[in-house]
């Protein structure tokens, strides 16, 4: 019996200290607090309050990671994430929300985002874990 080859997704290097982070959310209070948190953890943070602003910033600058709110006011954050991914903008794209990740699994998968992070779990370590990708699959029976 032959075991099928194990394939692993390409590994995206985690953001280095000082690398850019694009933070997209319609809530100015969250933008301020998340920006402070990420800057204390070594990111250079640029904020956007709308999808249009985020696309313009992403096209004009280089970002290691983009955090996009799923519920971006009247806009669809998952659609914005899909656009960023499709255009190769924003580095590693991560969807964020106050809603649990299990409820949004299909939305995240359809968007092409690298993953999902609950807003209250935001940290450099969490972003590096998402950027590094899932652990390699183990062969059956191992």
What would you note in describing this structure?
The chain has 142 residues and is an alpha/beta fold. The protein has one domain: Response regulator (Rossmann fold), CATH 3.40.50.2300. The chain has five helices and seven strands; from the N terminus they run βαβαβββαβαβα. The strands form two sheets. It has a five-stranded parallel β-sheet, with helices on both faces. Strands 4-5 form a two-stranded antiparallel ribbon. Helix 3 packs parallel to helix 4. The chain is globular. It starts with 19 loop residues before the first strand and ends in a 10-residue tail after the last helix. About 5% of the residues have low confidence.
Features:
7 strands; Rossmann fold; single chain; 142 residues; alpha/beta; two-stranded antiparallel ribbon
Q: What does the secondary structure layout of this molecule look like, with pairings?
A:
Elements (H helix, E strand, L loop, with lengths): L19 E5 L3 H13 L3 E5 L2 H10 L4 E5 L1 E2 L2 E2 H11 L4 E6 L7 H7 L3 E4 L5 H9 L10
Parallel strand pairs: 1-2, 1-3, 3-6, 6-7
Antiparallel strand pairs: 4-5
Helix pairs in contact: 3-4
Report low-confidence residues grouped into runs of 5 or more: 6-12
Radius of gyration: 16 Å
Shape: globular
* Structural domains: how many: 1
Q: Into which percent range does the helicity of residues fall?
A: 25-40%
Level-2 CATH architecture: 3-Layer(aba) Sandwich
Q: What is the CATH topology classification name?
A: Rossmann fold
Structural class: alpha/beta
Order of helices and strands: EHEHEEEHEHEH
| Average pLDDT figure | 84
Indicate the proportion of strand residues: 15-25%
What summary fits the major beta sheet? 5 strands, parallel
Number of H/I helices:
5
**What is the CA-CA span between the terminal residues?**
15 Å
Taking strands numbered 1, 2, ... along the chain, how are they ordered across the largest sheet?
2-1-3-6-7
Count of individual beta strands? 7
| CATH superfamily placement | Response regulator
């Amino acid at each position: 019996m032959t075991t099928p080859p194990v394939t692993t997704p390409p590994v995206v290097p985690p953001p280095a200290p000082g690398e850019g982070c694009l933070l997209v959310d319609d809530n100015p209070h969250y933008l301020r607090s998340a920006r402070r948190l990420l800057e204390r953890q070594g990111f250079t943070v640029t904020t956007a309050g709308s999808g249009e602003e985020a696309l313009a910033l992403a096209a004009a600058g280089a970002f290691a990671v983009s955090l996009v709110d799923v519920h971006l006011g009247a806009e669809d954050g998952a659609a914005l994430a899909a656009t960023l991914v499709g255009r190769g903008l924003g580095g590693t794209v991560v969807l964020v929300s106050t809603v649990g990740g299990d409820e949004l699994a299909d939305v995240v998968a359809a968007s092409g985002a690298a993953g999902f992070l609950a807003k209250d779990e935001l940290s450099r370590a969490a972003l590096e874990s998402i950027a590094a990708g899932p652990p390699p699959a183990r062969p059956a029976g191992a």
